[in-house]
Write a structure and sequence with these properties.
mainly alpha; two-stranded antiparallel sheet; about 0% strand; globular; Succinate dehydrogenase; membrane; transmembrane
């Protein structure tokens, strides 16, 4: 009986590219466009949170919905006419709910890939040298916090439901309004993006061992899986739709847009 020599253990480490790049194409274009797109969203979000023009009947700006502060929310903008935060709170209403959709997108699997490449250059593209000397992934602080993405998903579901409610209210009170249909399209994209999340797919039926015993959950999982395949385009489409819808409402509230069916 022959004795085999055990294979030496290979230490796994991040691939090292010794030259700047092996690429001959314009590899920098994709991370640059991603950087500009995400940066525009961040800049607009900061401006929108502090802009007071959040409501004109029957429209409420998505970045400030649900509006929960009595002092900074117009009466018609309050969710179900209810303002649980008293008049002691005088900061912008959008700050109260910013963490839910913001945290959901910040920890989203697709957005993580995007800003790792475009902001941190880790790595900027395949076969391109990165400037970082070591790599620990998401195993240490602060990136280990990315693991709470699944919990932000529940908050994002609530935000999606509220935006859908806002759009339906606008449809009831102003069915021919351009803003109504902008809000409806935005709500549909927000909900589709939220449901296409990897966490949603896992929650639906990701831990089942026998699909045949759970036909309803299997059908739901199949539907979510189809959405999940479009997670990247839905992430971008919903990001620009929520910016566009929010900006449109603010322009109408400021009187900049004032045609009859605005």
């Amino acid at each position: 009986m022959t004795q085999t020599t055990p294979e030496p253990q290979v230490r796994r480490q991040r691939a090292q590219v010794k030259v700047r790049t092996f690429r001959t194409d314009r590899w920098w274009l994709a991370p640059l466009l991603t950087f500009l797109g995400l940066a525009s969203f961040l800049v607009y979000g900061v401006w929108a949170v502090f802009d007071p023009s959040i409501y004109i009947e029957p429209y409420i700006a998505p970045f400030s919905s649900p509006c929960l502060a009595e002092a900074t929310c117009p009466e018609g903008a309050r969710l179900f006419g209810w303002a649980p935060i008293g008049d002691w709170y005088t900061l912008p209403a959008g700050l109260l709910i910013l963490g839910l959709p913001g945290g959901f997108r910040l920890t989203c699997y697709y957005y993580r890939k995007s800003y790792y490449r475009s902001f941190w250059l880790s790595p900027p593209a395949c076969a391109v040298q990165e400037p970082h000397g070591k790599y620990t992934g998401e195993t240490r602080f602060p990136l280990i916090i990315q693991n709470i993405h699944r919990y932000f998903f529940y908050g994002a579901i609530v935000i999606g439901a509220v935006l859908t409610y806002d759009a339906i209210l606008a449809l009831i009170h102003k069915p021919l309004g351009v803003g109504t249909w902008i809000l409806l399209i935005n709500a549909a994209l927000i909900v589709a993006y939220t449901l296409s999340c990897h966490s949603c797919r896992h929650i639906t039926a990701g831990r089942l061992n026998h699909f045949s015993r759970h036909p309803v959950r299997y059908r739901a999982w199949t539907f979510i899986s189809k959405l999940n395949a479009k997670h990247q385009p839905l992430a971008w489409a919903s990001m620009f739709s929520v910016m566009g819808a929010d900006f449109y409402v603010r322009l109408v509230a400021k009187g900049i847009i004032n045609f009859p069916y605005a």
